[in-house]
């Protein structure tokens, strides 16, 4: 899908320095019109710095930021037409919800009637009632505050919206609920979205494409399936999802190339199943078991190492610690990278 | 493009002008009103001519100091400060333990009584105590009725000063100590009890060690307060440093040897002590405090005193203190509504209830030296009917309001700059410049102003003698503002820390300029704290005595100075009539003003927008209910 659409944001050879420290090394990103694009990575990897470079809070040492083909590298923040939803939402505590949303419109010196119409329109779209508009932001729940932040970012009609870990302050249940709402809103508005997160699950569920950051570099840009199942680098493979590293003894059993590091996803390993073509069956002993309800995670000792395996919980095939099992591994499911 | 450039150029020029103006203002403020006057005081000690030789002798004042009686003033101040540390700590710690830690019956009422000195302090408190304990005070009159041989002047000198200052200083001491004791994790107390420690051992080994840093800070601050004491020693007659500086400042060379240089030396000695103590305090604070490592802190629960004898003794002690705190307050409030004869005779008569001490006036008949009766019209006047008192109130109100506002404006602008340029040398320099007055005793600043600006040679005052006539009011405002800068800085800086940096980013992203962001986003957030600082500074300055006493100018006769005059002989030759009544009324008035300010600051000011909107909604509902009922009742009434 991404290839068919026109380019909306283009980062070309971006380098950002803080004093002598180079925070971003030659970043190149191309975000398409209407795309939900996520910057994913651990803390301090440069994802927020990249976002702040796009929004204009940070000026790059070199490189250009283009939006719709226009160079905006040196355009002031307020003239970039980019909406931001901050990590803390940054809602003005001394203003009502209405005044928070209307702030940008008032700065634009629109007429009172127009401001009122626009505020109420956007409030309706993000499901905020008239009564809620008159409240102080401190009187709203976390989810409602997030909606206010989105409404405030969208009301001025920006071409792009940037979100900096907007779900990180919420509890797990609300995070999942709002994640779905966020995706729905983005689809409804059809607005190009850049989303920053360190949560791989959030990135995988929300994004059209993901850029995985590490130490100021982009390791891989791809769809959720690409970065999960076809991780380009060892870092991406380790960072996204849980994974088993195949040690030398097991690698020998599987006849793998010793000049490479090999990894395997937990759900690709099968326990006590009929062998498939090309699959290697290895005996193992259940060391430990973690019960998650929907699935069960086993720690199996085999070929001199512990392998983690996820099995669907069918209520019948549940193995006890100490039980002998047969573990099926297919070498085609392995992800291998040259040793560094 | 050229239009754009022109606009950008104009913007740049405007910001440059503001920047230059700002730097010039702060340089002017720091050098003109902090550094130069104080340096002048310092150098004046070493530029005095020896009367014997007529030549400048840098050490003549110091020699005079060492050979004369001046060290006595220093020793007296040190003695007062040391004793005050002991008494304030004993009373301060015990009132907090009695109301917060031990289970004492009526603790809430006791706490209210102990905290009365928060709204009844300074010169009002001293004159209040005098009203009770001086030679013709209520208690002294009552005691001399029972014991005719009693020394009627018993309430004067060191003991009286120590007694008065102990109770004047403990409310602040208790306020901080209470916060520290409330921060204790009760689980640590339970853990110690669980391991077999007695309640006394828990207090000594678990609770007190965590309070030591707070106690150390409070001890140092109390010591400085004792050292710099002014109103109590002046009014109760104790020869300490500050009253001596004021006396010397008003003295002339004809009366005694180089009085100004001696006053300067005393104020510098005071400054040296203050700087030394604050250095010790800050180095101790840098070592860090005991912090609770508990993730789920438990609220402190009151401890029962199991020993019945100890329990009774603790209750007796608690209520004794309560009586000491409350008696002057109750007496003053009651006598504020008594007429002149009742006040003169110090006899309470509920039939003589009157508002004359507040409003209105009466004629006063008195006997002259020649034995004739004369009448002075309107001599018995109330607080708001006496020209002198009203003048003092008005002047104090205006000067305090201007100074408190000035301090807030200066600090808000400075702190905004400091936060914008965090960790940059110029921001650090600005912060230290604003904290500079904290190192100096108030009297040094005021005395320095008085001497330095009492000349037409100060070039940046454009040939004006700022100590002459009404000009002195400008000096008082500047002294008030400068002295309050460090407190304002600490409080307002703390408020700025509460501003999420993302708010500024959000406002800028939504198109707001730095000025609009400051005015519409940041300022409303810090405004409650700024207003609180304004109110607290205003409250402190409104009844301030030390500074206006140092200026000793009839053009700067503040409310506190007027109150002090009310303590002079009353009614002699028909003058100063009903001073006691006005004194009582003044104290009631000050308590009301302070109480109102504290309520506005800690009650109303502490509410956030959500709480305010909720309250507004409640009021609306209430009115709707009433008006709805009225509307419903109206047709019924018509029908009837």
How do you describe this structure in short?
The complex is a heterodimer of chains A (340) and B (640). With 340 residues, chain A is α+β, with helices and mostly antiparallel strands.
Verbal overview:
The complex is a heterodimer of chains A (340) and B (640). Chain A is of the alpha+beta class and 340 residues long. Chain A has helices at 47-55, 97-107, 112-125, 130-133, 142-154, 172-189, 200-206, 224-229, 234-239, 248-253; strands at residues 7-18, 21-32, 36-40, 62-67, 70-71, 82-85, 160-164, 192-197, 209-214, 217-222, 243-246, 260-265, 270-271, 280-291, 295-302, 305-312, 324-329, 335-338. Chain B is an all-alpha fold. Chain B folds into three domains: 71-255 and 271-335, MetI-like fold; 383-565, MetI-like fold (Orthogonal Bundle); 607-640. Chain B contains 24 helices and two strands. In chain B, strands 1-2 form a two-stranded antiparallel sheet. In chain B, strand 1 (361-367) and strand 2 (373-381) form a beta hairpin. The N and C termini of chain B lie far apart (80 Å). Classes of the chains: A alpha+beta (340), B mainly alpha (640). Chain A binds chain B through residues 55, 57, 77-78, 82-84, 86-88, 90, 92-96, 103-104, 107-108, 134-139, 152, 156, and chain B through 500, 502-503, 505-512, 516, 520-521, 524-525, 527, 608-610, 612-614.
